[in-house]
Specification:
Length: about 55
């Protein structure tokens, strides 16, 4: 295998690592921002308050 092919393979791997990094960043953003909003009704019910009061706390 020539050194040019090895260099291309390294660049290709770096590209996929960048895609994976962006994917993990987006996933962590979505989970931390939107998951709690989806759980507000359950949180309010467990504390015995309305959804609006649980969302403001």
């Amino acid at each position: 295998m020539s050194s040019v092919n090895k260099g291309n393979k390294k660049l290709e791997n770096r590209g996929w690592l960048a895609v994976i990094a962006i994917t993990l960043g987006a996933l962590s953003f979505i989970v931390t921002e939107f998951l709690p909003v989806g759980l507000i009704p359950d949180i309010g019910e467990s504390f015995g308050v309305s959804e609006g009061a649980a969302g403001l706390a």
